[in-house]
Specification:
By secondary structure, this protein is an all-alpha fold. It is built from 11 helices and no strands. GO terms for molecular function: metal ion binding; stearoyl-[ACP] desaturase activity.
């Protein structure tokens, strides 16, 4: 059985992989500018500048679009916490540090462009949004996983892909081609970040297969989106799931399964003992998630049918 490496050894062994994937990322990633994705000609002053303050009738977003946009933006706002997390789990030296800085700079553009869009289009109440930002960032974010390289790269692989799916579906749900274009651009970034972490985790699996397998089970069992601590997160998550923007089926079929397939988790022959047991535990976990996804879909169908019948009865 492979000896478990120390954190220092893992950082050293994985640094060439970080450097390779950093160079790949810098070659593929295209520069873009938040101001190019905002309809500035729709902007109006608020009362402090002699204009009119926000009113709900000014927003073109429905409940689902508003909940998704606010949730996604507040998630991006908490970037200082995420920077701290990955800096503590990884390193600020060498290629590791270069990646942490680059990732942080790219992620910051997402909050910039989304906030500018929402304020200019008056999509949400800017005062409520700012209060929620203050509360969420003051609370911060701490990963539910144990610290270290392996839990770190495992969690962010799934989290970046989940965020990509959420942004992409939010853009479609807004019913605005400008929002759709903007969030499609953001989703491209998130996908490139996911690929970086997914490749790094694949190398970690080759180095420490049994240990990584145990880590993956723990990460997926305890997985929570980074916005979990924000104001009204549970309520907004229900609205978002009901609209099909991000729900248990999305999480299983568009996030978990593609990543596990890329890593060939159920085809590998290098697990032994605890690693084999962890893979069996993961298979049982996925079976349970499948059942939960089906139950949620059935519940949503019944709920939507009742709502449609209610509208017909009163219509």
């Amino acid at each position: 059985m492979t000896r478990e490496m120390t954190e220092f050894e893992l950082l050293e062994e994985l640094e060439p992989v970080v450097e390779t994937n950093l160079n790949r990322h810098l070659t593929i990633a295209k520069d873009w500018y938040p101001h190019d994705y905002v309809p500035w000609d729709e902007a109006r002053n608020f009362s402090a500048m002699g204009g009119v303050d926000w009113d709900a009738e000014q927003s073109s977003l429905d409940d689902a679009g508003m909940a998704a946009m606010v949730t996604n933006l507040l998630t991006e706002d908490n970037l200082p916490s995420y920077h701290r997390e990955i800096a503590e789990n990884f390193s600020l030296d060498g290629a590791w540090g270069t990646w942490v800085g680059r990732w942080t700079a790219e992620e910051n553009r997402h909050a910039i462009v989304m906030r500018d869009y929402l304020i200019v289009t008056r999509g949400v109440d800017p005062i409520a949004l700012e209060r929620a930002r203050m509360e969420h960032m003051s609370t911060g974010f701490t990963s539910a996983t144990d610290g270290g390289v392996l839990p770190g790269v495992s969690y962010v692989t799934f989290q970046e892909l989940a965020t990509r799916v959420s942004h992409r579906n939010t853009g479609k749900a807004c019913g605005d081609p400008i929002a759709d274009r903007m969030l499609q651009r953001v989703a491209i970034d998130e996908n490139l970040h996911m690929v970086f972490y997914r490749n790094l985790a694949a190398a970690a699996l080759d180095l420490q297969p049994n240990r990584m397998m145990r880590v993956l089970v723990d990460v997926l069992r305890g997985f929570q989106m980074p916005g979990v601590g924000m104001p009204h997160f549970r309520r907004n998550a229900v609205i978002i799931a009901k609209a099909g923007i991000y729900d248990p089926r999305s999480h299983l079929d568009e996030v978990i399964r593609p990543v596990l397939q890329f890593w060939r988790i159920f085809d590998r022959t290098d697990f032994a003992g605890p690693g084999e047991q962890a893979r069996d535990d993961l298979a049982a976990f996925i079976t349970d998630l499948e059942a939960k996804a089906r139950r949620f879909e059935e519940h949503r169908e019944r709920m939507l049918a009742r709502e449609a019948a209610g509208r017909q009865a009163t219509g």
